[in-house]
Amino acid sequence: MTEKPYQDQTGPIVVDQTRLRIEDIVLAANRMAPVVLSDDPGFRAAIARGADFLDRLLAEDGIIYGVTTGYGDSCTVVVPASLIGELPHHLYTYHGCGLGEVFTPVQTRAILLTRLASLCKGYSGVSTGLLEQMTRLLNEDMLPLIPSEGSVGASGDLTPLSYLAAVLCGEREVTYRGQTMSTAQAFSLSGLTPLTLRPKEGLAIMNGTAVMTALACLAYDRAAYLTRLATRITAMASFTLDGNPQHFDEVLFSVKPHQGMQKVAEWLRQDLHCPEVERNGRRLQDRYSIRCAPHVIGVLADALPFFRTAIENELNSANDNPIIDADGEHVLHGGHFYGGHIAFAMDGMKNAVANIADLLDRQMALLVDTRYNHGLPANLSGAIGERATINHGLKALQISVSAWTAEALKLTMPASVFSRSTECHNQDKVSMGTIAARDCVRVLELTEQVAAAMLIAVRQGVWLRCRQTTELQPQLSLQRMVDALARDVAEIIEDRRLEPDLRLLLERIRQQYWTLYE
Q1: Domain 216-318+331-510 has what CATH class?
Q2: Which residues, in sequence order, are bridge partners of residue 35?
Q3: By C-alpha distance, which of 11, 12, 6 is closest to 32?
Q4: Contacts with 62 (C-beta within 8 Å, 6 or more apart), sequence order
Q5: pTM to 2 decimals?
Q6: What is the pLDDT of residues 121-144, one digit of tens each?
Q7: Residues ≥6 apart with Cβ < 8 Å to 205
Q8: Which CATH superfamily is domain 13-208 in?
Q9: CB contact at 8 A, 115 and 40
C-alpha cells in the first residue's frame, strides 16, 4: 500500500488508558504523527500495579495460566519455578512459523500501535519497560518483518505477533533505515537493548487481536474514501452517458430513509445539474448501475458507522488472556482474544466494497458500448477520421476491469464461517478474523484498481461528451475533478499503454489525493 506523505501536522498520539480512534491508527501507520507513551503518574501506576500483582502471586506459589503453566492445551502442565523465566522465549520461538508475504510498513506500524493500545489498558500484567520498547520501535521506524499468514484469529494473532515479541527481545529481522537487517544489527545501530520478557509478557504481546484490528482500521479508512470516490465516478459516468439526474431527486430519496444512501444521492445532486424540464432524447429511466448507484454505494455508507463501532471497541479493548485485575486482585480466565466482531465487520465490508467494484464494472460496460453510451465513439476512442479504424480506445481496459471485479467478487465468501478446530481441540471454535481482514484488504485493492480504470474512462467520457456538444457542460465540482484528472491523464486519441496512468491514479487514490464532498 502506498504511504501517505509524512507530515507531523497533528501533534503526537498519546497512548494511555483513554480511547483511540481509527484515525489515530491511520495517522501513525502513515507516519503522519509520532506516538508518545503517556507519562501521567496515574497511568504509569496502573501499569505497575498489574506487574506487581503478578510478582506477588508468583512469590506465593500461585498457579497462573501461561505464567506457571504451559500454553493452550498444555495448561495442565505445571512449569517448575526454575524454568518460568524461559517460558515466554519458548512461546514466541515455537510460533515462528508464519508464511506468505510480510505485512507492509504501513500495516506493521498499525499492528504495533494497536497492540500497544491494548496493553496500555492496564489489564495485561506487563511492565512499562515493554510499553516503552514498543513505542520506541514505532518512532525509530524499526519494523518487524511479520509474515501475513498463519493466524486463525484465536487465541488471537499468535503466530504473526510472535514476530513482534521476538524483535522486542532482539531476535529475527526488521526493516530499519530503509534496509532489511537482523534485529541485533538494528539494535546496535539505534542503541536499543533487547528485553528480557517478564513471565506473562510473551503471552500478553501475542495473545490478542492486534493484527486483524490493525488491518480493519486501515480497511475502514480506505472503504470510507471509496464511498465518496465511487459517488464522484458515478456522477461523471452519468454525465458521460447523458443520464437523467432526476433519479437522485431529494423528494424521491426522502421516502426511503437510509441515511447513507440519502447522503450518496445528495452528493450526486451536488455534482449533476438537475433541470426542472427534461431535455428531449434523454432516457426516462437510466440503467440500474446509474439509477441505483446510491442504493449500492449507500449500503457501504450505511454500514460504516457499525464497522467503526466494532473496530474501535476492539481497538480499545484488553483482549489477551488471562486478564489481570490488579485492583481486585483477580486473575480472570476468558476468551477476549476471540476476533469475532472484527471477522464479521471485515466479511461485511468486503461484501459491500466488492459490490461497488461490480457497480463500476457495469458502468464501464455501458460507457464503452455504442448501444448504451448515447452517441459516443466505440470504446470511448478519441481518434477521428480514417485513424479511428485502427484505434481501440478503452477496449482492453474494460476487460481488465472485468477481471479485477471478478477476482474481488470471488473473495466475498465469508471467512468467519470457516472455523477450524486447532491445538488439540482447545481452540475448537476460532474467529478467522485475520483471514477475513486480509481478504477485505485484497478486495479493497482490486476495487481501487477498478476505480482507477474508471477514472480514466469517465475523464475520457466527459471530454468526449463536451467535444460532441456545448449544450451539456459539467457542474463546477465535476469540472474541477475533470481538470485535476486532466493534469495526470491525457486524452486518449491514439492508442497507448495505460498501465502508467493506472499506477499513478492508484497512488492518488491510496493517498486520498482528491478532496471529495466536504
Answers
A1: mainly alpha
A2: 13
A3: 6
A4: 68, 331
A5: 0.95
A6: 999 999 999 999 999 999 999 999
A7: 92, 115, 119, 126, 130, 161, 164, 165, 168, 197
A8: Fumarase/aspartase (N-terminal domain) (1.10.275.10)
A9: no
Residue of 65, 372, 513, 517 with catalytic role: 65
Summarised one tens digit per residue, pLDDT across range 159-197 is 999 999 999 999 999 999 999 999 999 999 999 999 999
The Cα 96–Cα 207 span in angstroms is: 14
> Has 372 been annotated as catalytic?
no
DSSP 17: S
Could you read off the pLDDT of 310-319 as tens digits, one per residue? 999 999 999 9
Environment class of 198 (CB within 10 Å of its CB; exposed 0-12, middle 13-18, buried 19+): buried
Q: Can you give 34-57 as a three-state secondary structure string?
A: CEEECCCHHHHHHHHHHHHHHHHH
Cα–Cα distance measured from residue 436 to residue 417, given in angstroms and rounded to the nearest whole number: 10
User: Which pLDDT does position 86 carry in this prediction?
Assistant: 85
pLDDT tens column, 205-234: 999 999 999 999 999 999 999 999 999 999
- The angle subtended at Cα 384 by Cα 381 and Cα 387, nearest 5°, is 90
Region for residue 450 given its phi and psi (left: phi exceeds 0; alpha: psi -120 to 50; beta: otherwise)? alpha
Cell reading at 40: 501521567
Confirm if 462 and 240 have CB atoms less than 8 A apart.
yes
Of 50-64, 356-370, 464-478, the range with the lowest mean pLDDT is: 50-64
Spatial distance between the Cα atoms of 322 and 199, rounded to a whole number of angstroms:
13
Grouping H, G, I as helix, E, B as strand and the rest as coil, residue 280 is: coil
In the chain, where the domains are located? 13-208, 216-318+331-510
Residue 189's alpha-carbon distances to 131, 263, 303, in angstroms, are 21, 52, 46
CB-based contacts of 61, cutoff 8 Å, min separation 6: none
Closest CA to 159 of 406, 435, 354, 357: 435
Distances in Å between the alpha carbon of 188 and those of 102, 232, 449?
A: 23, 50, 41
DSSP 78: B
Using alpha carbons, list the distances in angstroms from residue 197 to 71, 74, 129: 16, 20, 10
